[in-house]
Specification:
Elements: E1 4-8, H1 15-23, E2 41-46, H2 50-59, E3 63-65, E4 68-73, H3 88-96, E5 100-107, H4 122-153, H5 157-174, H6 189-194, E6 203-209, H7 219-230, E7 234-238, H8 240-248, H9 251-260, H10 267-278, E8 281-287, E9 291-298, H11 303-310, H12 312-316, E10 318-324, H13 326-331, H14 335-340, E11 345-347, E12 358-363
Parallel strand pairs: 1-4, 1-5, 3-9, 5-6, 6-7
Antiparallel strand pairs: 2-4, 8-9, 10-11, 10-12
Length: about 375
Amino acid sequence: MALKVAIVGLPNVGKSTLFNALTQTAAAQAANYPFCTIEPNVGDVAVPDARLEALAKIASSKELIPARIHFVDVAGLVRGASKGEGLGNQFLATIRDCDAIAFVARCFVDDDITHVEGRVDPIADLDIIETELMLADLDSLEKRIPALEKRVRGGDKEGAVTLRLVQQALALLNAGRPARAAVVEKEDEKAWRMLQLLTAKPALAVCNVDEGSADKGNALSEKVAARAAKDGAKSVVISARIESEIALLAPADRKDFLETLGLTEPGLNRMIREAYSLLQLQTYFTVGPKEARAWTIRVGDTAPQAAGVIHTDFEKGFIRAETIACDDYLKYRGEAGAREVGKMRLEGKEYVVQDGDVMHFRFTS
């Protein structure tokens, strides 16, 4: 499941520094001038999950394979991006190809780092980005209406559904609200996704703070958090500069460094988990002596759908799934112990997989 999260923001808010820390590489050039990132950089990162290591230890697994998620470093947007200003068209196309958006808001003051707008105001920054994405959506939708109206006059039922959804999205956008605020009926969800609206994508506000505010945030990040909560979105506090320093340390030295800052874990771990949750994803595990592996599925997926993530034949020939809750697997020290106390269950095709389930599938070839 190659899911992508776009890292988006105005120039010089710390996007590329954050991306470098995420991927622990210098793939994205971090420099103090606009458009230093021309081609979008893609980083494939592991989703932090302490359960995987604990499961592997019990099973004496030789290899650990975590769940993964892609982050895309998108060059800075500026006013007029929806009309092609800066490198707007290219940037917007990159965002459209992603599944969710992480809006990086500059919540630090540093006279040595230029702000493209000449001031530090994260709420205004978010307004600029959201406005440009909304304008791009408006333009896209308005261009579709003549063709859709023609289809509807010809009796095209599918076209009628699409036109109704386009009008619903336009009403929101013209009222200054993003398309993600729409209430879409279940039967319309596929047609809604086909509209490929930028502002319909799930969003996470990432508050990039100064080093001294990495543990609790600051007044600027509090404003962003309040704005996100009002919009029904999530937010996370992070110091991109600290994260870039952590990424360069040996794993054995990171704990001590974090403790000196009053942190229990890197901020990136929280950001990755929030992005994972934002996409309504969850994890199940397969565990054995060869490997312990975390598999990514969507919340609400059934056992056959989970099996299909491993191989399509597993879903087609699904018989049942031997299932142990992660907590039970850990408590009773593995599969044999869980089975002894009746904590291994045989689940059928209707079973909705729960986050952390340890599963073994039986299927016909």
